[in-house]
Structures are given as structure tokens and as C-alpha cells.
Design goal:
The complex is a heterodimer of chains A (136) and B (282). Chain A has 2 helices and 10 strands, in the order ββββββββββαα. In chain A, the strands form 2 sheets. A 5-stranded mixed beta sheet of chain A has the order 2-1-9-8-5, with no helix packed on it. In chain A, α1 runs antiparallel to α2. Chain A has 136 residues and is α+β, with helices and mostly antiparallel strands. With 282 residues, chain B is an alpha/beta fold. Chain B folds into 2 domains: 4-25 and 243-281, Helix Hairpins; 38-239, 3-Layer(aba) Sandwich (Pyruvate Kinase, Chain: A, domain 1), CATH 3.40.1380. Chain B contains 7 helices and 6 strands. In chain B, strands 3-2-1-4-5 form a 5-stranded mixed beta sheet, sandwiched between helices. In chain B, β4 and β5 (174-182) form a beta hairpin. Chain B is elongated and about 115 Å long. The chains are: A alpha+beta (136), B alpha/beta (282).
Chain lengths: 136, 282
């Protein structure tokens, strides 16, 4: 059976580059399951999880916002972060959440700093939620 | 004439300085390689950005996007990437020379790096924001800067955003470069003209894809500039420290020569004294 070449690139590294059987990813218009020989497509990627089927193996990754380019033989994902399950450090994520919460209580912040901290908080919460869910 | 003790002391202190500059040189070399590797690691991302832009070529109305809007420049935002520390040769001086002649009444500055903060404070110009970047730059650290600049641009507070950074050419050469960031130069994106290929479906549509990709494009440009700054900083420091080490070695050689001369002269004088004394007694 035909396979799909999946590539995930971030500004800092090529996070994933392997042959896979199926990819499910969060597109702009809902979840998108891509099998080999999919029609050529270009869409926005929303922050969420990418689920990859590779033979018997299931791989899950957390991704940030970005883009997906689909051709019949290849899926390229351009995103600003891609984190595998094993890389999510639960303690570190929790610590980041606590730090963000204390920072938010601190009164003398300008709006940019608040927005930045809130973003960091959302990111850590997403990572933590993902980690807890995949454990069961 | 200095005494042998004085000379020995001086030689020792120069040797210590040479050891430190040598260590700094080696550290800078390692960090430079790291920054270069990070810039290379971003290449697949760059290629894909180019691919997406090529695919939407000719299908979109570029002037309709807010990040591409060209307006007459009344107020300008200038982003400066500099180093945090000195001891890197003329890197920062060359950089700031590019700023002479900027209109201080209509320019606001956003700085990344302590040296730039000092420069702006010294010349009493408008400082809008000061972002700290760590030695190893992460993409996540650059995004708030991109957000800050594009928010100001979109709100109309600022009509143009330019960036000044030291471009890494090679180990010996770093070029101060002043580039337009916003509005994103249309010729850089190359969106006008005929459609390249017709086989892509777009979700939601090509214009939506354009709107979503431009912030990423801009943030990635900034990230590359930050990496360039780091590579330039470390290579400039490496060269400066190599010169310092070489100079110290020359100095040690000269001092050692002088030390030996003084020592020999002392021996000669002593011998003369002994023989004279013997002759007088005999």
C-alpha cells in the first residue's frame, strides 16, 4: 500500500520526517484525516494534537498554529512548535503554570506582559492536558 | 632600568590576561558554531514558507492585507538587535553608526540587547520597548517582539517598521543591515503575476491562507535576524579575543627578552665585582 511521507518543520528544527500510513490533524475547518493519495490541499493548522498512524504504532504530537501542505504522496506541516509525548515534562509544565499565575497576580504589569503570560499559561495547560489524557 | 622582580610580575600578569582571552576565544567559537547551526536548522521551514507563498501566487489580492498596506510614513518604529556584552570589537559601534541621521521626532525604538539600550539612553531618543534575548535564542522569545511590532503597525500608530541588525557574512565580516519589516515588501513575497500551479485546494481560501501565513513569515524573519545577531556577536568576539591573545603573546616575548637581558647584566656585574675584589686582595 502506498505510504505518506510526513514532515513536520519548526523554525528551530525538522521535528519529524518519516513514512506513515495516516495523519489526523486539526485543520482550520475541523479535524482532518489524511490518507495516501489525498487531493492536493493547503490549509491552516490550529493548535492541537496531530495523531500519526505508522503500521501498528500510534504517535501523538502537540503542535502550535501553522500550515499544512498536502500532496498525494507527502504531508508537510509548518508549525511553531511540535512536542512529542515523551518530551512533555509534567513537573516543568506545572511549575510554569504556577509561575504564570503568580505573575498575573502581580499588579504592575503592562498589557503586553499580561498577554504574554496568558499565552504561556495556555501553552503549559495544553501540554499538561495532553500528557494526562495520553497516560490512560 | 626595571628590576628582575618587576619584570617577572609583569610577565605573570600578561600571561594571566592571555589565558582569559584565549578561553573567551574558544567559548565564542563554540557559541558561533551553535548559532550558525540554529540558522541552518531553520532552512526547511524557510523552504516551506516559500512553497506556500508560491502556491498562492496570483490568487490573492496582496494590497488588501493589513500587514502589506503601504502608508505615507509619519511615525516609524526601529528595531535594533545588538549584543548584551562588549568585548566584541567594533560590532556595536558600526551598527549604531547606521542610526546617525534618523529623525528623532518621528522614530521610536525597540531594542534587543543591553548595548542598544545604553546607546538609545545616551543619545536621549524615544525608547518604546526593551526586549531581553537570551544567549541561545528561541523562536518563542522572538514572537512577542513580532506581535508588538505588528500590533502597533495595524493600529495605525506606526506607519513603517525597520530593523537594524549585524548580518553575519563570514567569521571576519559582519555587515550592519537596515531592512524593512513592515509593511512586508511586496517584491520579497513575489505574489503578483501568473499562477504557478493550479492543483491546490485551499481551506478556507487563498486569501485566508495569505492572512495566516504573513505573521509567521514576519516572525520567522525576525528569528533569523536574531540568530544572525548572535552569530555575528560570537564571531566578532572570537576575532577580537584572538587579536588580544596574539598581542599578549608578543608582549610576553618582549618582556621575557628584556628580563633575560637584565638578568645577564646582573650576573656580569656580579662577576666583575668578584674579580675586582680578588685583584685588590691579591
Amino acid at each position: 500500500m502506498a505510504k505518506l511521507q510526513l514532515e513536520i518543520v519548526t523554525p528551530e528544527t525538522r521535528a519529524f520526517s518519516e513514512e506513515v500510513d495516516m495523519v489526523v490533524l486539526p485543520g482550520a475547518e475541523g479535524e482532518l484525516g489524511i490518507l495516501p493519495l489525498h487531493v492536493a490541499l493547503m490549509t491552516q493548522l490550529l493548535p492541537g494534537e496531530v495523531r500519526i498512524t505508522q503500521g501498528q504504532k500510534q504517535i501523538e504530537l502537540v503542535v502550535g498554529s501553522g500550515f499544512v501542505e498536502v500532496t498525494p504522496t507527502k504531508v508537510s506541516i509548518l508549525t511553531d512548535m511540535a512536542v512529542a509525548d515523551a518530551e512533555v515534562d509534567e513537573a516543568a509544565a506545572e511549575e510554569a503554570i504556577n509561575r504564570a499565575k503568580t505573575d498575573l497576580q502581580n499588579k504592575d504589569l503592562n498589557s503586553e506582559e499580561v498577554a504574554e503570560i496568558e499565552r504561556a499559561l495556555a501553552r503549559s495547560l495544553a501540554l499538561l492536558k495532553f500528557k494526562r489524557r495520553t497516560r490512560h | 632600568m626595571p628590576s628582575t622582580l618587576d619584570l617577572r610580575r609583569r610577565i605573570r600578569s600578561v600571561k594571566n590576561a592571555a589565558q582569559i582571552t584565549k578561553a573567551m576565544q574558544m567559548v565564542a567559537a563554540a557559541k558561533m558554531r551553535k548559532a550558525q547551526a540554529a540558522a541552518v536548522a531553520g532552512r526547511p521551514y524557510q523552504e516551506m514558507l516559500t512553497r506556500v507563498l508560491a502556491a498562492i501566487k496570483g490568487r490573492v489580492e496582496p494590497s488588501s492585507h493589513e500587514l502589506l498596506a503601504v502608508r505615507p510614513v509619519r511615525r516609524e518604529l526601529m528595531l535594533i538587535f545588538s549584543t548584551d556584552k562588549g568585548l566584541c570589537g567594533p560590532l556595536n559601534t558600526n551598527l549604531f553608526r547606521e542610526l546617525t541621521g534618523t529623525d528623532r521626532d518621528k522614530t521610536e525604538f525597540v531594542v534587543m540587547g543591553r548595548k542598544a539600550v545604553q546607546y538609545i539612553a545616551r543619545t536621549r531618543q524615544n525608547l518604546a520597548a526593551d526586549f531581553a534575548l537570551k544567549d541561545t535564542v528561541h523562536y518563542a522569545d522572538v514572537r512577542p517582539i513580532a506581535r508588538f511590532a505588528s500590533d502597533k503597525f495595524i493600529s495605525g500608530e506606526i506607519d513603517q517598521v525597520r530593523v537594524l541588525y549585524p548580518k553575519f557574512v563570514n567569521t571576519l565580516t559582519q555587515q550592519p543591515v537596515l531592512r524593512n519589516l513592515l509593511p512586508i515588501p511586496a517584491e520579497e513575497l513575489d505574489l503578483e503575476g501568473d499562477t504557478n500551479r493550479g492543483e491546490f485546494l485551499f481551506e478556507p481560501d487563498a486569501q485566508g491562507v495569505l492572512g495566516a501565513i504573513l505573521p509567521h513569515y514576519m516572525a520567522f524573519q525576525l528569528y533569523q535576524m536574531a540568530l544572525n545577531t548572535r552569530a555575528s556577536e560570537h564571531s566578532a568576539r572570537m576575532v577580537a579575543m584572538k587579536n588580544a591573545t596574539d598581542n599578549a603573546k608578543d608582549l610576553i616575548k618582549d618582556l621575557t627578552l628584556e628580563y633575560n637581558k637584565v638578568r645577564q647584566q646582573n650576573i656580569t656585574t656580579e662577576l666583575l665585582e668578584i674579580t675586582t675584589a680578588q685583584l685588590a686582595v691579591g
